[in-house]
């Protein structure tokens, strides 16, 4: 049964402190966290694909080394997050199985293709930039293991965002063709990045409850606005345009007016029908099958080591 409204759980939430794995918690709170953390972990792992597409074709050895390190960081983020989810009494096998069978989601953004090298820059600047805006408040999430995982993830995401910005900055100051590549990448990634923040507040099923539980600290629309406000100045430094003719400062609101992303497209992508959904999941399933022997070998090694220790 769920704890009563004046119990330890609610006192901790009201006092802005952390719930830890052994604390009693409402079943719906636990389920919401498993859903969100698993979806977040899956996003990190699936998110390795669009960028790894360019590792073998990075324009220099240095760029290749940086991109390799970045994609490896994403795998690490997935691991911290699966570990955080496991503290809620689910196993990693179970979560991976739900991803591979389409019963759990991952972020819409990773269902778009990376057509040119400039896309690696746009992903770093816009996608990782959006991720930071969304994730910095999660460092204050009421669930301890998730909040702590987010601290390190956010530090690494800041580095990712800067490397993307620097790629675009370099292209924007290169030849006319390089500048065009950079602009084209921003034109294609801008609206999908805005859609990452989720449906508008009026259509967000979980926001109200998640904010009451202090899992989410800001609504989807609040964070989307913050992201737009942050990008405008950075685009000026890049000398590149954001593809929105409606973008203008609104002194009454103290923020930029902007065109919303196409939310029908977001729902279509979330439901499995985006440009690369099938390719992403097929690739993930193949990697999982091919990695079977590694998992078995690691489990056998762990069992043997345990036996040796016991002897
Ligand atoms: N992609 C895929 N699904 C989405 C997206 C998106 N961009 N936005 C919302 N959804 C889904 C929600 O998961 C929910 O579906 P469900 O009930 O089947 O789980 C539904 O759309 C309705 O949305 P909300 O009620 O607004 O959902 P929620 O309160 O969970 O907010 C949000 C969505 C903001 C993405 C939240 O889950 C969150 O902050 N997650 C952690 C961050 C994260 O996952 N980032 C991944 C991308 S960043 C990166 O990895 C680099």
Automatic annotation (TrEMBL):
Organism: Natronosporangium hydrolyticum
Keyword Oxidoreductase listed: yes
EC number: 1.14.13.149
Name the UniProt record assigns to this protein: 1,2-phenylacetyl-CoA epoxidase subunit A
MF (Gene Ontology): phenylacetyl-CoA 1,2-epoxidase activity
Swiss-Prot/TrEMBL GO biological process terms: phenylacetate catabolic process
Transmembrane segments annotated in the record for this chain: none
CC terms in the record's Gene Ontology section: cytosol
Alphabetical UniProt keywords: Oxidoreductase
Organismal lineage: Bacteria, Bacillati, Actinomycetota, Actinomycetes, Micromonosporales
